[in-house]
Amino acid sequence: MDSWEQLKHDCAGCRGCSLWETRHELVFGVGNERAEVMFIGEGPGEQEDRQGIPFVGPAGKLLDDMLTMIDLDRNRVYIANIVKCRPPGNRDPLGVEQDACRGWLDRQIRLLDPKIIVCLGRIAAMGIISPDFRITREHGKWYDIDGRRVMATYHPSALLRDVSKRPEAFMDLRSLRKEIRAVCDSVYV
Ligand code: URA
């Protein structure tokens, strides 16, 4: 029987790809370990790598604002990434790195057993929903995967770069709120 303590301990010793050589801190995940809603990003950036916590840099500030818009916060959701160690220079994580890290994410998903997963950006959506996922065309759509409701929206970094995408992201958040009301037991929003 897996436990969060065991999983964190195992993950801390990971040498499954070469990213551990250049990272400062491993970024395991943050939030409520009993949450019904899980957000999955891409991988740690500079601030996250320094602090060991996901989404604490500029994109994280925007993610917090996005959660607030639908009356959520970090204590009510769980946040993890496709890869736990920072790719140097914030490049996209390579396929081999994503594959090497996948077992940790799968164990997090199994332990949390969320009703809803929200993929933040293309890399997470390609890993969780479909390898040929097109974020501009398919964001905001709901998929049923392993008994969970799964949706992707734009990555907060993309929304920082291109504010014209924000209204669409807001519609995705509204759809998320509706879905939470429909499928989550906890009194959420
Ligand atoms: N971007 C991500 O995808 N994850 C983080 O933790 C921070 C920035």
Explain the overall architecture.
The chain has 189 residues and is of the alpha/beta class. The protein has a single domain (4-181), classed as Uracil-DNA Glycosylase, subunit E, CATH 3.40.470. The chain is built from eight helices and six strands, in the order αββααβαβααββαα. The chain has helices at 4-12, 46-51, 58-69, 95-112, 122-128, 135-138, 156-161, 166-183; strands at 30-31, 37-41, 78-81, 116-120, 142-145, 148-153. The chain has a six-stranded mixed beta sheet with strand order 1-3-2-4-6-5, with helices on both faces. The longest helix is centred in the middle third of the chain and has 18 residues, at 95-112. The termini are far apart. The mean pLDDT is 97. The structure holds uracil. Uracil binds at residues 27, 41-45, 48, 54-55, 59-60, 81, 157.
List keywords for this structure.
six-stranded mixed sheet; binds uracil; alpha/beta; Uracil-DNA Glycosylase, subunit E; 189 residues; single chain; globular
Which fold name is given in CATH as the topology?
Uracil-DNA Glycosylase, subunit E
Describe the global form: globular
Computed CA radius of gyration, to the nearest angstrom: 15 Å
Main sheet: strands, sense, barrel: 6 strands, mixed
Distance between the termini: 32 Å
Q: Tally of extended strands?
A: 6
Percent range for β-strand residues: 5-15%
